[in-house]
Amino acid sequence: MGGPANGHSKRPPEAVYRQGLAGGPDAKKKMKRALHLLFLMAILSSACSGARLSRDEARQRIVEIGSSSLVPDAVEIRRIVSQDENQAIAETTVTLAFQFKRDKPGNQWRVAAVRLGDRDWISLDELLVAINDGRRRETLQSLQKLAAGIANFRQRNGSLPNATDIVTLTDILHPLYMTDLIREDAWGHPIVYEVTAPDFRLRSYGADGLRGTQDDVVLPGDGGLRPQ
After folding, report:
1. What CATH class is the domain 134-220?
2. Taking the domains of the chain in order of start, what are their residue ranges?
3. Which residues, other chains included, contact 41 with Cβ-Cβ below 8 Å and sequence gap of 6+?
4. Measured between alpha carbons, how far is residue 133 from residues 113, 123, 183 in Å?
5. What phi and psi, each to the nearest 5 degrees, are found at residue 198?
6. Which residues, in sequence order, are CB contacts of 32 under 8 Å at separation 6+?
7. In a 3-state reduction of DSSP, which class is residue 220?
8. Which residues does residue 101 pair with via DSSP β-bridges, in sequence order?
9. Do residues 161 and 167 touch, judged by C-beta distance below 8 A?
10. What is the mean pLDDT of each run of 10 residues along the chain (228 residues)?
11. 125, 135, 145, 146: least surrounded by Cβ within 10 Å?
12. DSSP designation for 184
């Protein structure tokens, strides 16, 4: 993690923020992505205990993320939607600090780090790595559930499902052989079902969405799972 800019800088943070926005579409796009990722982390890491999520409780849970000391006034709950007994989505505006850097004068500004409350600056690269690690684990769990469904089908029918893509496969498996309908990885890409007679392989193309790169998530055979 890096530190904030030197305290003796002649350019105040507000000026850096405004100049960063003027740095071009790349800077704006990265800033919006950082905001999206932070809000996603907020949704994943917050736990609310009330029967129905109120605006006050949503604000308090967000304030407590990562043991930060965000003041409640820095969190605006715009509305709470898609609410049932166990899930709710709060559309929220949170005041964050963004650190902008550039290699030399005249170059475009880029978002280098993000700070939430009184926490240390988090580099954008570290944030993306953390998000992708979480998505990789979630994707592996999805592949394991699919593999268990395939194993159930094979145990009962003596063969693999007659499918060449994830939609056909899940139409066969769900809901008789598996309870969850899973077709995409955690990055929103379709999961790939490959028959490698006499077995099969499940594949996610990972964060980059490209086949055969280092971030692919591959589960061969039944993944060591037994039929449930």
Report:
1. alpha beta
2. 13-120, 134-220
3. 65, 131
4. 19, 15, 20
5. -90, 15
6. none
7. strand
8. 110
9. no
10. 46 44 55 57 49 78 62 75 80 85 92 80 87 94 95 95 96 96 96 92 95 94 51
11. 125
12. B
